[in-house]
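Lab notebook, bench 4. Still working through the backlog of constructs that have no structural model yet. Next entry is a single chain of 232 residues. Request: give me the structure tokens for it.
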Amino acid sequence: MAPAIVEVIKLTKSYYRDHTEIPVLRELSLAVGEGEFFGLIGPSGSGKTTLLNMIAGIDRPSGGEIKVGGTEIVSLSETELAAWRSTHVGFIFQFYNLLPVLTAFENVELPLLLTHLRKAERREHVETALAVVGLSDRMDHYPRQLSGGQEQRVAIARAIVTDPTLLLADEPTGDLDRDSAENILDLLGQLNRDHKKTIIMVTHDPRAVKRTTAHLRLDKGLLLEDALNAGA
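Model written out:
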């Protein structure tokens, strides 16, 4: 088994409603090997997206540790965490999160504006990312001029343009028709196999689960080993 690139150790997360504690994750531990295409499945409200957001450094746990590539991210300050996230994490959302006033090229370029790359270097990175997702001929199109599947491809190009350590995908096929969903899953599989990207994907889609190299079911804040049975 490949060495773990993500280690989650006794992670807990609770929210509070008035004075009532609502536990979401309960001393959860998880290891994801480098180069894995790992799936998290489970019912709505089970904590999947919460876990993904904490691995991304978007949300903080109530307790426990998260190590990504050997860096313990829970102890980082907000400034350190933002800098770490911009280098190491590419996030793919269900609803694409593209800015409608920007072209595909400009949307993909956004993460690079936080780097010290020169304009010509940024262009090279963006063109490479759009070529990887098969949209070199759509770089000047606005989101409204693209199909849902093409919008998600732009979002994936934006996620990979910084060559991050980790790709995190939250229901990446949830807003797509069957054919577009299959195309996105093909692309994620290609990124995993050919470009050696480690991917963690939250999904309800049984077809998506079959594309993963490993997966677990999350239910009521606990990870279950026998996750393959029912479609999520």
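Notes after review: The beta strands are 4-17, 20-33, 37-41, 63-68, 71-72, 89-92, 166-170, 198-202, 214-219, 222-224. Residues 226-232 have pLDDT under 50 and may be disordered. Flag for follow-up if needed.
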